[in-house]
Amino acid sequence: MNEETLAALLEKVKEGEVSVEEAVSQMKTLPFTDLGYAKIDNHRAIRSGSPEVIYCEGKSLEHIRGIVRHMLDYKEENIMATRAGRDVFEAIRDVTDEAVYYDKARIAVIKRKEIQKIPGGIAVVTAGSADIPVAEEAAVTAEVLGNSVERIYDVGVAGIHRLFARLDQIRKANVIIAVAGMEGALASVLGGLVDKPLIAVPTSVGYGSSFHGLSALLTMLNSCAAGIGVVNIDNGFGAAYLANNINRINRKGYGEHE
């Protein structure tokens, strides 16, 4: 249940279209439902603006099916499952045929409502094409949360002229996500060229001494360019969620009620 749905229910109570008892019945599972193996946060969209997301790694297919069934029964609009392999997608398809799979992002989305996007959204920039899976997790997440996304891939510092060729396009975004492995220099370079919030995502791409992304993480944390926020290694989802929260501040300017 999101804020809009709750407000509509209370309005029906006010107008006498729904009894207090019926409203209590619909709201009785707030703020969470205990399924035994999972506690579903039914109230999250009201508190934070976005519903709970299903993180699939480590969960059994049976549990994922159960969580999805509950969220569907609870009338959640668009449901997102991250780190979802093809087997997870097929398990979700057992529950609903409304699911769509994004292979590179490893995200399954149950689309029940048209996603309204605002202009001037988020730019997702990668150093190399090997960083695209993490970038796609960020891009798809941001889109499902209601943002317009510009993908700008393979513009790393080894051929920095590629970055300069797309700089005007990058600067048009409200928020920038920089995704890079190896030494992770892309975030520092971009940080010195843009005046927008910049979120850096280190990836586990690189040879042995990159330590599965630790080298890129430390480079980004120690960037001499000011104003860079850094998320964990390969955490495209976390970067997109933070970018969405920043971008939501601009939505009031486009007439959206918060």
From TrEMBL:
Domain spans labelled PurE: 120-252
Record Pfam families: AIRC
Entry's Gene Ontology molecular function annotations: hydrolase activity
Coiled-coil features, chain-numbered ranges: none
Recorded superkingdom: Bacteria
GO biological process: 'de novo' IMP biosynthetic process
Name of the protein described by the UniProt record: Nickel pincer cofactor biosynthesis protein LarB
Organism per entry: Bianquea renquensis
